[in-house]
Each structure stands twice: as C-alpha cells, then as structure tokens.
Structure to design on (273 residues):
C-alpha cells in the first residue's frame, strides 16, 4: 500500500512538473510575439519582409493593418500594440501634444516623396487661373504640400514659415489657385474632381499611382522634407530598448528589406538606412 502511494505521489509530481514546463514554454512563446500596427501600403508590405528576418532572431511578428492615422497610436499608447509603423516625426510630435500620449520614435525606416498629380489638368503649365488643387488637411502634411507647391512657383509662403505652414501663410497666389484641404486618404479619389492634387506617398501607391511616372512634380530627395518626414518605427516611451523592439529595428533595417523597397516601389518609397 505504501509502495502504491509512493508511486502515485511520484506520478503526480511528474505531471505537475510537466504542466509547469508547458506553461513556461507557452509564456516564453507569448513574450516573443511582437504586435505592430501599420498602414496597408507600403508599411505592412515592408513588415512582411522584415517578418522573415525577425524569425531568425526568435520572434514572431503579428501585423495589424489600419486605414487611419489615429488608432495605431492610441493602441500603442494603451499597450494593445507593441509598436506602430506608419507616420513621420512631425505627425508624432503633434499627436503627442494634442492627445497627451507618450510615444517615441526608435528608428527611421523609409521616406515617401510627396507628389503633385494631374487631375483635370495634365501639366503645371496648363493650370488655369482659379484652378483647384487638393492638399492633405492634417497639419504637418499640409505644410509639406504647400512647400511642394511653392517649389513649383505656384504660390509663395511667409518667409521662414517652413514646416508649420498653413494656407493662411500664403502671401502670393498669382493664379488665384483654390487650394482645398481634404482628408489625406480621400485625395486620390478626388482627382477626377480637381485640377491637381498633392498626395502622400502611401496613398498614391494604394491608388496605383507612380511618383516616378505619374507625378508632375515631387519633393527633392535631398530636401529638408526627406529628412524630416522619414517614416519611423514608434513605441511607447520606456520600451525603446526592449530586446524584441531592437530585433525588429534590425530586421527592418536589413539588406533584404532595403532591396525589397528598391525593387518594389519605383522610387515612391526610399530606404533611409
């Protein structure tokens, strides 16, 4: 009887030990999942390439796609996401100030040149007086669009207004252009209704537009905008040095990702590493 009892105790201890090991392994696996929010194009596509690189470091990448610029940030702030990849630093700075969030950039990954695309009018030279041009309605992207129009000689902005420019800072508008502010994601759809439009790189790609072939003007790759508006990987403050995040940075800045960007986007996306 004592022998049977001893055997039973040993069996129970072994079962408990195995269950404990199983739970530990499960917890370890869960800790290695990195959940990242991203715009569909090109961010999620780039992350898919980085996913294979990240697996080599022992991490599983879960990509959550978004079609707006707000939820990925709030989800990262709330801990629903480990990181996000869709925005540039000026937008992030404004978002933190307006929403009281605590998000920081950990790496610059790529740059998407803004383009001026034809709608009803094919060339800048053909733009009539009073022509309508659509630009993004959010602060940082609006400034960028206005600077592109200024670079083409279509308008003149207040001196030194730079990346804070709004339509109220236009001091010269020789053609009397009607510059309308539109939600960035909707601008490609508005092309048939306007003479021209300034479109974010990712939304142009989604609409099947090529900055190299379709745009009548683009930002200079060496411009201040290229450095300022690099798209960044973002985390909640305090998580910058997390091992998984650093592994993700390394994967995103890998040679495989760089080559994918160069081969895929025809200049609409430019690696910044």
């Amino acid at each position: 009887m004592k022998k049977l009892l001893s055997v039973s105790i040993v069996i129970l201890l072994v079962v408990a030990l195995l269950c404990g090991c199983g739970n530990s392994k499960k917890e370890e696996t869960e800790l290695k999942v990195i959940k990242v929010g991203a715009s569909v194009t090109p961010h999620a596509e780039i992350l898919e390439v980085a996913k294979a690189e990240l697996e080599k470091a022992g991490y599983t990448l879960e990509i959550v796609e978004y079609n707006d610029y707000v939820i990925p940030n709030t989800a990262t702030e709330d801990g629903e996401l480990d990181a996000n990849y869709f925005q540039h630093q000026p937008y992030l700075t404004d978002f933190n100030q307006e929403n009281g969030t605590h998000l920081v950039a950990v790496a610059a990954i790529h740059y998407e040149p803004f383009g001026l695309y034809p709608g009803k009018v094919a060339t800048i030279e053909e733009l009539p007086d009073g022509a309508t041009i659509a630009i993004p309605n959010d602060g940082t992207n609006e400034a960028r669009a206005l600077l592109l129009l200024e670079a083409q000689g279509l308008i003149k902005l207040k001196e030194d207004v730079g990346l804070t420019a709004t339509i109220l800072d236009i001091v010269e508008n020789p053609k009397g252009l009607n510059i309308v502010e539109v939600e960035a994601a909707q601008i490609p759809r508005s092309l048939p209704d306007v003479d021209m439009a300034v479109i974010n790189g990712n939304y142009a790609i989604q609409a099947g537009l090529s900055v190299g072939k379709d745009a009548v003007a683009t930002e200079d790759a060496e411009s201040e905008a290229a450095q300022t508006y690099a798209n960044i990987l973002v985390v909640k403050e305090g998580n910058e040095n997390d091992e998984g995040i650093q592994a993700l940075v390394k994967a995103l800045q890998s040679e495989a990702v760089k080559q994918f960007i160069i081969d895929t986007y025809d200049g609409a996306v430019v690696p910044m590493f």
Confidence is low (pLDDT under 50) at residues 1-5, 7-19, 21-29.
